[in-house]
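**Protein of interest**
===
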Amino acid sequence: RGCLGDAEPLCREALDGRLETLGPEHPDTLTSGNSLGVLLRARGCLEGAERLLREVLHARRATLGRKHPDTLNSIGSLAVVLKDQGHRVCAETLFREALDIRRETLGPSHPDTLVSVNNLAVLKQEQGRFEEAAALLREALAAMRETLGPSHPSTLVSASNLAGLLQDQGRLQGALMLRKEALEGMRATLGPKHPDTLTSAGNLAALLRARGRLADAEPLYRETLEGLREMLGPTHPDTLSGVYDLASCISARGDEHWPEAEALFREELAACVSLYGPEHEETRRSARTLASQLQRRGWVAEAMELSAKHSLQN
């Protein structure tokens, strides 16, 4: 099930115990609730995470006030979940609330303020508001390098976020330098299996692949997939994305690499069928990819059979 799956029952046990002994509005109970909500988000359980984080935020606003650090942490946690769900307008409102309060109470260069700057910038990037995002990301990165140092985890995440924006703008050389800086720093400070390190490795792999450097991208995709399997388990959606990314990279390297790529494509499809069902959009995407690869290599009958099985002609 992966390490995150193993942690969930422990978090629930801690929350249940504090609810019983301390009550629903005790600060320690709310801390346990927030931790479980963040964990659920990491596991991809966004609806459960949103519900729990809303409850915690409501209680913290009522008991601690809107400017308390714990309340601001809850605002940020809920905003991230809403962003993941595509509720970007609601997420932006919360990110701005947290940023405005932190600038007022902590100052513009405080690490928590810079985290809020970074969160808002990432959201603007996802909305296509690149110039606004770039200004915020450069502000955050420069301040983090000065106040936290170049190897601090928050600095490295900020560098990675700016790299993503540069990549979206087609400024690949600048993006590549920042991607490498972020990955090297995260390996050293967070370890090779930390979620941020795995994300960073996958991001660098994708950039290298986009530049045609498949041989350099492949070991990074392997590193990412190995870590995802260990941390999240073999059927987590992020793990399946890692399987697909590695398979696609290997397949693009030529027919001599096809046997391994085929095995990975089939692994992903089987897991999608098990996880989502045969008619789900993700399953059909996976089946379509495999069918296309098979047809390109002359296995037309099997490709047609796969297409019919998953209603790809519709």
